[in-house]
Amino acid sequence: MRLLRSFGLVGGGLVLLLVGLAFLPLPPPFFGMVLIAFAIPMLASGSKRARRLIQFARWKIAQRNGVLEKALYQAPRWIGVYLRKTDPGPVTRRLRQRELHQRSLT
User: How far, in Å, CA of 62 to CA of 10, rounded?
Assistant: First the structure.
């Protein structure tokens, strides 16, 4: 049952993401962004690999635009639950540890 739920969440999330990306260049881009906002939590809750990918993408965004990160935390509560699961902090920590390890080798 858990596997079926996971497949449903990932499949539905991918469909919503693709439709949202298709609607972004059309005149009302807000509709595409809403679909993407629904797709990201579905993907994050359905797959650990998708959650890590979203975490890495948020880390890249946080480096460039802190305002967007603040706006993400003002999202509705049900989205916020999954945003906390994709917090980019562990990516930063892992890169910092890798850098320290490389320094110690030289």
Answer: 25
98 exposure class (CB count in 10 Å sphere: 0-12, 13-18, 19+): exposed
Cβ atoms 8, 46 nearer than 8 A: yes
Q: How many CB atoms lie within 10 A of CB 76?
A: 9
pLDDT tops 80 at residue 10: yes
The answer, as to whether pTM is greater than 0.70, is no
Burial environment of residue 85 by CB neighbours within 10 A (0 to 12, 13 to 18, 19 or more): middle
Q: What angle do CA 16, 73, 52 make, to 5 degrees?
A: 55
